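Backbone-to-sequence.
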């Protein structure tokens, strides 16, 4: 993706983009170019070269970004974003991962959410950039289900569960008042979103604003990501539980997510296979029912996006990913709540 030619004028928006990056030389230039090539012009792109040992900074600078480099690695994506926040001079701040590109109209399509004064943050639809391996195919179906079904319902009730960290926009003043991105959990996007709700702010999801992150292509990368996401979810439930009880819709959504994380995971990974062996193979029909429940909204979302064939091909990968995800969620629940050994090291998984 390239900059717009001079003969195609673009309206500017008072928005600064923060791109946290650690050893992202392979992706960061394309990310910067996709931002600068938007149908609306942003004020500035700030790439935080967070102690990289490769050419991340040079690649970002050559692509047109302003590069900031902390004295030492900040230890997390949130830390890198917070390092850049004092440099933001615009009313709006956008956060995007260094391995994520944008649809040409993504920012333009996201901004209308901020026309409503009570809305402090907005996020868009996420589609994997590459859909080749088993894990990428599974993640594609997972996103069709999560963003095309769950998140749309959450937005209908005005309570998207997360303003996704890979691509979201915020009111800078509200972001600063909240202390920037929290570093107390492993999922800063979830923590920040729930904190905004606690402060009375609104969050929106606009599916027409699309981004394309690089997703884990093998189990090694997927393992890191799923561990971080699972532990981060449990950490946030512990941190925000009492406050969430007073926000009806959010309480319902978090309760459903916790049910899926605990009870549904036990059934999917342990109970159904054991009952099939000890009692009757008919218990395996539970997987058939689960598949039907998932496939209908996935098919609808995929049809709307003209991706039905690709979604069908990705279903086997989705169910492998679903089982692995359930296992990591159970591990996180045990480690965080029972063993009291919280995961604190931030590890990024592409």
């Amino acid at each position: 993706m390239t900059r717009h030619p001079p003969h195609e004028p673009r309206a500017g928006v008072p928005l600064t983009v923060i791109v946290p990056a650690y050893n992202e030389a392979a992706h960061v230039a394309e990310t910067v170019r996709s931002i600068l090539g938007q149908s609306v012009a942003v004020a500035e792109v700030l790439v935080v070269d967070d102690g990289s040992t490769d050419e991340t900074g040079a690649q970002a600078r050559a692509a047109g970004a302003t590069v900031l480099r902390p004295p030492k690695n900040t230890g997390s994506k949130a830390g890198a974003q917070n390092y850049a926040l004092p440099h933001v001079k615009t009313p709006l701040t956008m956060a995007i991962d260094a391995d994520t590109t944008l649809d040409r109209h993504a920012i333009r399509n996201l901004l209308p959410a901020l026309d409503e004064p009570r809305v402090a943050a907005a996020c868009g639809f996420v589609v994997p950039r590459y859909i080749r391996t088993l894990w990428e195919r599974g993640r594609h179906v997972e996103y069709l289900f999560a963003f095309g079904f769950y998140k749309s319902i959450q937005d209908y009730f005005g309570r998207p569960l997360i303003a996704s960290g890979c691509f979201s926009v915020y009111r800078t003043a509200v972001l600063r008042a909240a202390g920037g991105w929290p570093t107390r959990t492993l999922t800063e996007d979830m923590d920040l979103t729930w904190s905004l709700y606690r402060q009375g702010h609104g969050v929106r999801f606009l599916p027409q604003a699309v981004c394309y992150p690089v997703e884990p292509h093998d189990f090694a990368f997927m393992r890191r990501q799923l561990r971080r996401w699972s532990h981060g979810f449990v950490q946030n439930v512990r941190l925000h539980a009492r406050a969430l009880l007073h926000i009806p819709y959010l309480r319902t959504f978090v309760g459903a997510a916790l049910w899926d994380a605990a009870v549904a995971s036990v059934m999917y990974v342990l109970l159904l296979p054991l009952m099939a062996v000890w009692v009757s193979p008919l218990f395996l029909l539970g997987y058939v029912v689960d598949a039907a429940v998932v496939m209908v909204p996935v098919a609808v979302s995929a049809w709307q996006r003209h991706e039905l064939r690709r979604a069908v091909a990705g279903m086997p990968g989705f169910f492998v990913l679903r089982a692995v995800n359930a296992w990591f969620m159970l591990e996180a629940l045990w480690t965080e709540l029972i063993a009291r050994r919280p995961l604190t090291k931030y590890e990024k998984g592409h």
